[in-house]
Amino acid sequence: MSRSTSSSSLWRPWMPVTQQADLQITEARGCRVRDADGTWYLDGISGVLNVSCGHGHPRLIEAAVDQMHRLSHYDPMAASHQPAEALAQRLAEIMPGDLNESFLVNSGSEGIEAALKICWQYWRHLGENRERIISFEAGYHGTTALGQELSGLPFTANDWPNRFPVDHVALPAEPRALRTAEGAKALLALFSQALNSATPTAAVIVEPLLGLGGCTVFPEGFLAGLRRLCDEHGALLILDEIFTGFGRTGRMFGFDHDGITPDIVVTSKGISSGLIPLAAVTATTAIKETFRDAPVVQGLRYGHTTGGHAVAAAVAKAVLDVMAEEKLVENAGTQGAGIRSGLDAFRAHPRIADIRGLGLVIAVEADSPESAEAIATGAMDNGLLVRAERGVVRIAPPLTITTDESIELVDKLSRAIATLG
């Protein structure tokens, strides 16, 4: 049997094929994970930023096993089933305004593609061929072909020609300088300019805060202003809540901080707490109704074999029950504020450029990618897993994190920062 230079047959995402995994996780409980050597770590990145209810929550496992005994899945094109129906109804109850219609898929990337398909078909139902999309240059919307085109981040680039026109809005200042009223005005001016240029816009798509784009927190009023601009130009507003949705920012959804209602919302990650893949695309009833009256009745031309999986839907409903009963949204706000307060002492550190966050999204911006990597390595040496990305250390523990665990997280991260000198 042929072998590459790697001793593993597993092809890992984003990593050079010659790079071996330094860590192999064998067990996880609550906010902690254990490696193959038996060392336990405080999980500061929630698995893949998705373990909202903590690892191995018994209520979620029970919901999955019970549904497996009843019905694992059935073709959603051929028949409906109760778990998917119940989840869609629950999402309609917790979403604001007229966001009543949910389409279930497997991942955030699929959700973004479905949202774009809904958008394009919607405009054609209205007799307009709008295709142009406006997004942040530093936004991230998945790794499928259409999602990559929405982003201007270097690692999303591909060699294929664009399938639709995209205008990327660059940040007008460093993230630490944007969290002001002036920052909001500058951002909105750039989106206004983009909306007023070229052909009519089909949609504006943004994250409530930029995740992979530096964990950038937007100023208060930005999303409300963007909603007004979209209304003025007749463009749809799509919110990518894949990372931020379901309590991560200290509100149920990131757009709740500005009290707005988007036209389409894409959610994933925390919706099933990492137990089983799931994503939802939730649109207004007005958008769905255009499919009912379409000249050529074909329905939404998008779908996947396991989209709307019965077990995934049952787990997601249990996630929402756990979040309500354990007050995890409120806990995210409280614990996030405590962690940021605990890290305030390092704001004046010569190697730290900024400390920012919203709920349990916390970012420590270092003076260089090397410094950020050193912090992440030092944190791991102290028993804490965080993620360094292009000079920013991202911290996003499970929403179940306790006050004692938050204090422990701050202590371990502080030790890592202190080693920078």
UniProtKB/TrEMBL annotation:
<dbReference type="InterPro" id="IPR005814">
    <property type="entry name" value="Aminotrans_3"/>
</dbReference>
<dbReference type="InterPro" id="IPR015424">
    <property type="entry name" value="PyrdxlP-dep_Trfase"/>
</dbReference>
<dbReference type="InterPro" id="IPR015422">
    <property type="entry name" value="PyrdxlP-dep_Trfase_small"/>
</dbReference>
<dbReference type="GO" id="GO:0008483">
    <property type="term" value="F:transaminase activity"/>
</dbReference>
<dbReference type="InterPro" id="IPR049704">
    <property type="entry name" value="Aminotrans_3_PPA_site"/>
</dbReference>
<keyword id="KW-0032">Aminotransferase</keyword>
<keyword id="KW-0808">Transferase</keyword>
<comment type="similarity">
    <text>Belongs to the class-III pyridoxal-phosphate-dependent aminotransferase family.</text>
</comment>
<protein>
    <submittedName>
        <fullName>Aminotransferase class III-fold pyridoxal phosphate-dependent enzyme</fullName>
    </submittedName>
</protein>
<dbReference type="GO" id="GO:0030170">
    <property type="term" value="F:pyridoxal phosphate binding"/>
</dbReference>
<dbReference type="Pfam" id="PF00202">
    <property type="entry name" value="Aminotran_3"/>
</dbReference>
<keyword id="KW-0663">Pyridoxal phosphate</keyword>
<dbReference type="InterPro" id="IPR015421">
    <property type="entry name" value="PyrdxlP-dep_Trfase_major"/>
</dbReference>
